[in-house]
Amino acid sequence: MEQSKRKTRRIRIGGVEVGGDAPIVVQSMCATRTMDVDKTVAQAHQLARAGAGIVRIALDNEKEVPALKEIRAQTPGITLSVDLQENYRIAGKVAPHVDKIRYNPGHLHHIEKARTIPQKVKGLVEIARDNDIAIRIGVNCGSVAPTFLEKYPGDQLSAIVESAAYHCELMEEFGFERFVVSLKDSDPAKVMDANRRFTARRPDVPLHLGVTEAGLPPDGIIKTRIAFEKLLAQSIGDTIRVSLTLPNDRKHEEVTVGHAIIEDVKAGRFISVPDFGTGMNIISCPSCSRVENEKFVELAQYVKEVTGYAKQYKITIAVMGCRVNGPGETDDADLGLWCGPTTVNLKKKNRKIGNFKYDEVLPRLRVEVDRLIAERTGAN
Ligand code: SF4
Predict the structure, then answer these.
(1) pLDDT at residue 29, rounded to an integer
(2) pLDDT tens digits, residue range 233-277?
(3) What gap in Å lies between CA 270 and CA 195, rounded to an integer?
(4) Which CATH topology does 11-266 take?
(5) How many Å apart are CA 330 and CA 213, to the nearest integer?
């Protein structure tokens, strides 16, 4: 889709151009274990064949760097990005093997407390410059930097927009302009608000759009469309990622759905879902290298099945694949499940109910759903 109205700064990420009048780039992320080089290489090709302009990989520690190096060697022509999450300290080891690194401003404060945020960002900028790569400033509503939450009490939207704007200013202060920004949440309305606000604040900065943990198709596609159709129609968004909970052999559908949304917006076709979001809302992560047990996707599908009887109730259930993001990302849900290697942690809001085996958690979830319904309806 060619952009016409809003012109962001055009930057190069590996073999692709993002921003300005460049076509919108659809990207996706490998859900295979990064240490499993064969599977990750195969999935990177699977995503690229489907039309992914950028393929992202998660890296959790330095031990995975040799695997990344081998993945790079076996994926010539594919633009690779790495998601550093809390591991920004390994950026220097990762950078020689990728075209872009993503860091989360909400994950910089609690490690290396003796160094300031500007010092840490300066370090990342130097690594990016030395390795001729780009950066994504990836702000997430579930992990906003505490300084900004304190500065804007009760106003999460301002906190995330200002946190992103601050990091843009830091990059520019260090003479670096080859960056994109993302402001993500699992709620499409928040994604729209945050991206519109950020665009008004920094119209020049290229934006990566995403609705996190959109979940299983078809609901995950609908949630994503709600935000993307409106934003893309306003020429907001230079690169997109559709996050769907899918088994590995169907992971490329994230990419085909992304292209379909772009084509539909371009043709003026909008899928209207007037009553979407009035009942049960199941959010689930798209899984990645960090997923703790391969049963995760199946678990998300079963959660949908066993709670189907209560679909008219406005209950949010979050299903997350790992301990990195699982505990935090489930805090706002009425009921949350996050996967460990052999057990699933079940929560009610931010209170832990317990750890259950994979085959025991669903009956307990059903009990908790019944309790919630009883609390809300006053039934015994
Ligand atoms: S919750 Fe964990 S497994 Fe799921 S996408 Fe996020 S980091 Fe990956």
Answers:
(1) 97
(2) 999 999 999 999 999 999 999 999 999 999 999 999 987 666 677
(3) 19
(4) TIM Barrel (3.20.20)
(5) 11
**Residue range 281-377 in CATH 3.30.413.10:** yes
What DSSP assignment string belongs to 151-220? HSTT-HHHHHHHHHHHHHHHHHHTT---EEEEEEBSSHHHHHHHHHHHHHH-TTS-EEEEEEEEESTTHH
Alpha-carbon dihedral of residues 13, 94, 148, 336, nearest 10 degrees? 100
Q: Which amino acid is at 196?
A: R
- Of 103, 97, 118, 112, whose CA–CA distance to 173 is shortest? 118
| Average pLDDT estimate for 299-324 | 94
**Burial tier of 366 (Cβ tally within 10 Å: 0-12, 13-18, 19+):** middle
Distance, CA 323 to ligand 1 centroid (Å)? 8
192 residue type, one letter = M
Predicted model pTM: 0.92
Show me where the domains of the chain are located.
Answer: 11-266, 281-377
Ligand 1 atom nearest residue 290's Cα: 3
According to the model, what pLDDT value does residue 110 have?
86
pLDDT of residue 366: 97
* pLDDT (0 to 100) of residue 274: 62
- CA-to-CA distance for 17 and 371, rounded, in angstroms? 51
Give me ligand 1 centre to Cα 7, in Å. Answer: 32
C-alpha of 200 from chain center: 22
Helix (H) or strand (E) holding 311: none
User: Which ligand 1 atom is at minimum distance from the Cα of 213?
Assistant: 5
Question: For residue 32, how far is its CA from the centre of ligand 1 (angstroms)?
Answer: 11
Q: Three-class SS of residue 142?
A: helix
Note the pLDDT tens digit of each residue in 95-140. 999 999 999 999 998 888 899 999 999 999 999 999 999 999 999 9
Which residue's alpha carbon is nearest to atom 5 within ligand 1?
287
Distance CA 97, CA 131 (A): 9
Task: Pull the structure tokens for residue 98.
Answer: 């990728």
**In ligand 1, which atom is closest to the CA atom of 288?**
8
Pocket of ligand 1 (CB under 6 A): 285-288, 290-291, 320-322, 324-326
